[in-house]
Please model this.
Amino acid sequence: MQMLLKGGRVIDPSQGIDQIADVLVEDGRIAKVGTIEPMPGMQVEDVSDLVVLPGLIDMHVHLREPGFEYKEDIWSGTRSAAAGGFSGVACMPNTNPVADNRSVIEYILCRSAEVGVVKVYPIGALTKDHKGEEMAEIGDMVDGGAVAFSDDAFPIQGSAMMRHVMDYCAMLDVPVLAHCEDLSLSNEGLMNEGLTSTILGLKGVPREAEEIMVARNIMLARLTGCRLHICHVSTRGSVELIRRAKEYGISVTAETCPQYFSLTDEAVKGYNTNAKMNPPLRSPDDVAAIKEGLADGTIDVIATDHAPHATEEKETEFSIAANGMVGLETAVGLVISELVVPGILSIARAFEKMTTAPAHVLGLDAGTLKVGKSADITVIDPRARYTVEPATFHSRSRNTPLGGRELVGRAVLSIVNGRIVAKDNEVVA
Amino acid sequence: MALKRKDILGLQEMERDEIELVLQTAMSFKDILNRPIKKVPTLRGRSVVTLFYEPSTRTRTSFEIAAKILSADTSSIAPSTSSVVKGESFKDTILTLRAMRPDVFIIRHQASGAPHFAASLVPESVINAGDGMHEHPTQGLLDMFTILEKKGRIEGLTVAIVGDILHSRVARSNMWGLTKMGAKVRLVGPKTLMPPEASSLPVEIYTDIEEGLRDADVINVLRIQLERMKKGLFPSLREYTQLFGITRDRLKLAKDDVIVLHPGPMNRGVEITPDVADSDISMVTTQVTNGVAVRMALLYLLLGGTGDADAS
Model:
């Protein structure tokens, strides 16, 4: 079975390719990139005026299965990913039961093989029940297929415990993904601390709650040699700390999410629970710093922190509303609208942060169009204009503050292992 | 003139002429309170629900008395006596009550923004009776009413709000209302009880009580809560009193005709000394009476009354 993507602008950051070319897929693998004449029996997709990329990888997603299937499951979450242009997602371990042991990791992999339409890379918990008290069986989970480790939204507070898991992960050569938050300082805050929180009478989370832990974890990366990856960077101070750590040669990488370069805490006004997330939306100055960090390479990766929640978990008092927003189906549009169109990043550098870079952080054999590799390919239309309509999402959940926003750029074709899984916002797998 | 809004959620969103209308209407309603027969038929057949998720004596009673004087029927729901204890969501509680066809919901909630959420769910009026650390608009209005009654004006006065500004919805409503009415507002209190970026608000910030009280026309003293001390925001009630307590001596710094307000309940000997609390410049009980008049005015105006109507 051969498929030919004809006439697109092929961008592969892993090989430094950015040219008009054809891509030939054969038996689920990349067979050739260059000028290729269609042959009888080939499935030909005309992708002229479109951009052909390695399949996008979202390294920070909550698929919610097992345990919270009413919010999302592997079936719906991977379809949401496919529609949004992703060919692979790494899923966080805060499920029920927590993915803190090999059985849950293997369950996620089996279930993904059965019902998923994109590749799923499970992330294991660092500590049992992500309680920060006892180390989880990290080695066994590595053997079972976990690609990275994180306690995500239950960040390890004790520095000694964090040092131990980082030492251990350094030994196993797997990355630690750190949600950085000093819980005693954020102290059940509900939004960014600032004028808006003061006016709304909502308890604020100071930026320092994130930055203190970014600094600590960088110090521990220096101590342990662990590959530290900072999750969802949201503040100027964090960007500056990571920049300096990289100058010192400490093994640290970082991600941000589209919401942190597209929205500010003003989105919370009117007690909009869809704008409640952790870390919280910050100030315009932080947004500017995130963009600078993306532009100068301090921030390596763009992930979504796709966090689906049921309607009733958001249609409630702000103080008890769940944290997070769905992100898989708006990421490409926000990256193009907020970063590429204004000239902050070239299209190649923007999507490097969603392909080659996350593959590198997670050590995946993906995020490339090299001949012989799995044909995971995303085709985007960088000029498509549309309005975000949450009702059309493939995710089981609708929680986003972006409904009604005009965006430019969307995925039109998602290919996994040489098979089209989504086309023009329809999942066809 | 009628009030052109469905809900009273906060003074931040109210215009000066709306505030003036409420205060003016409350003036004529206050007369009714001084009559031997405290009953007018104005809101006969109207139904008012009070839904209080936080303990409150004076605010809830004040609303109920206001509604009853106007002949409206009142029902009061407290979460401990309702299906809320069975795990019903706030949204479902509101929709269930709405099905019983009340005309006004009066809501107090520990979560900032809860009355806004309720207002988005129902076409009937919602009055915020205090939400979290956000606003307590009827308290702000009754404080302004009291100031206006005693001083004859609000414009140009200097009002010092003293105490736990950070957690105070009373401070926020006073700040918005008073500044719209042309007063100069000072927030006075320890830095640990001052909200973030308070300097960006249309107020002056003081952490020195004596500077904060100097030449003030009005002092609005906030209740200090013991639990703030336990959370490490100040060392002891004794030190709080030393640094921020309103005493006879400190009053000398203010204008000679200064008046002292307190939203209650008071901690005598903590934020205010008993001799000040009981002096004739203390407006504490006057505020409570005025609260009924202001709430009568709001119920009347929200249910379609106009400012010019004869209240009797």
Q: What stands out?
A: The longest strand of chain B covers residues 125-131.
